[in-house]
Amino acid sequence: MSIQNLVHPFVTKAQLLGLFNSVSSFKALVDTINKKALEQYPLSKDEENNDDNGGDRNTFKGDAFEMFGEYLIKQFDTDERISIYDYCPNDGKDMGVDGLGIGDDGNPAVVQFKFRANMNEPLTYRDLATFGNDSLANHGIISRSEARRENELMERLISKEKITEDDAKEEGYPFKDSMHNMLVIATTLEVYYTMGEVNRGSRFLGYNHIRKLTQGKPQFWRDFKESIKTSAKRPGKRVCRTLKQHQVDAVDKIKQFFVSDFDRAQIIVPTGGGKTTIEHEAIDELIRMRGNGGVYVVVAPRIALVQQILREFWSIKKSDASWEPICICSGRHEVKEFYEGEEYGDLKPTTALSEIKKAVEKTNDGTNVILFVTNHSVLKIGKVLKELKREAELIVGDEAHNFTADNFQKALDVLKLPTRKWLFFTATRKVDHSGKGKGMNNVNRFGHVIYQISPAKLIQSGM
With contact defined as beta carbons under 8 Å apart, do 349 and 333 qualify? Predict the structure, then answer.
């Protein structure tokens, strides 16, 4: 036994929750994952009797089991029941394959994890079909007979022996008689069918297999907990960011705008001028002015940009700031950076109206919420705000020139997106002289420019 370096992103959460502190058997591990998942995401029924937290609860269980599986594989990589080396979790799009490695034959190997609360619930063809498809289509999995056949053909090519097309097709294609490098690890006892019916020769490591592999090995469980502890990312200290002079000037103008009767304004800062920092400071200032319990919205045109802005907001959040981020867009679940003395949390992107409503309702107990959203999803926030008879304190439009497009014009209608203030940020202000009023020179839609700095002045300032 030895301590392993775990890279699955769930490891940090496991350490902070102390998830496996009292676990010393596989049964205890499965029970603990089930119990803690229910504590983190309790049963919550909506008006249609659907469990709102069911998806989050299942994600928690799956992530926890995948992290344990990483440790199991690395600890027993030479065991013939596993025989996978250089294992790492799959950080790409989840199409069925949860982990990647190298089999004992030197060819790619893949792993899928399946967590079931009830060990007597067998896995079905549907449970594993996508695993097989993803393995063959995207991860270079070939059968052992195919690998042997390729080696034989290569040797014959090297020896310049003539090979006919019939030789190459002698064993048929694709070869699916020995998919040894496909491994399913599950908390169930069995599958409904022989593994050969889906991917012939692929392997199954179930509840009893794992229990026998790990029982009577107290060092295994001690090293598991120590591996989590040493692999978890340590909380860092927040570094107070000092504003550049042009950012100070911009924030001063924004504060004047906040106490004015105007509801819209524009900030023009070239690329590289720290627009996101100014946006963060604007919201921070308004929270101080308005007090707690407000809804704030940051809108950007692309999912990647929304997540980038959120991460930057989170990294420069002041230690005494009191706001929670919510990402309203599609995307993968990820772990937020966390800092000393602060409560840890997850970032799970969502576009569900029920989740947006929950986020807005958090403000009823004094919580400030910042919703980070794409232009495409922003009207969902408007729908929730109208339903709850609320309005946002501020909406920040990043890369605001995109709002001049026809498909985003509706978002500027206060009847569709109720808010007290709008701030439009861009490096490339788009104007329209056609008289149609779609450009940012339409003060009714975009307000006046209250701060602007040229690229030349920005360079002179040392940026």
Answer: yes
Q: b or e along 164-184 (b: 16 or more beta carbons within 10 Å of the residue's beta carbon)?
A: eeeeeeeeeeebbebbbbbbb
Classify domain 10-141+179-231 at the CATH topology level.
Answer: Trna Endonuclease; Chain: A, domain 1 (3.40.1350)
- Fold matches, 10-141+179-231 and 245-460: no
For residue 121, CA distances in Å to 65, 130, 182, 188, 207 come to 17, 19, 21, 6, 11
Question: Which architecture does CATH list for 245-460?
Answer: 3-Layer(aba) Sandwich (3.40)
Q: What does each C-alpha distance from 448 to 264, 273, 300 come to in angstroms?
A: 7, 20, 20
Going residue by residue through the chain, which has 463 residues, state the pLDDT in tens, using 9 for 90 and above.
789 999 898 888 888 788 999 999 999 999 999 999 888 878 766 555 666 667 778 888 999 999 999 999 999 999 988 989 999 888 755 567 888 888 887 888 888 898 988 888 877 766 666 665 555 556 556 544 444 444 454 454 445 444 454 554 444 433 334 567 888 899 988 765 544 444 556 788 889 999 999 999 999 999 999 999 988 866 666 666 788 999 999 999 999 999 999 999 999 999 889 999 999 999 999 999 988 889 999 999 888 888 888 888 888 888 778 888 888 876 555 555 555 555 555 566 777 888 889 889 989 988 899 999 988 888 889 899 999 999 999 999 999 898 888 767 666 665 678 899 999 999 999 988 876 778 898 888 899 999 999 998 888 877 6
Q: What is the b/e burial string over 68-86, where b = at least 16 CB atoms within 10 angstroms of the residue's CB?
A: bbbbbbbbbbeeeebbbee
**What's the rounded Cα separation, in Å, for the pair 341 and 329?**
29
Count the neighbouring beta carbons within 10 Å of the beta carbon of residue 157. Answer: 11
- 287-308 CB burial, b ≥16 within 10 A, e <16: beeeeebbbbbbbbbebebbbe
Radius of gyration of the chain (CA): 28
pTM above 0.90, yes or no: no
Find out whether 438 and 404 touch, Cβ atoms under 8 Å. yes
Domain locations in the chain?
10-141+179-231, 245-460
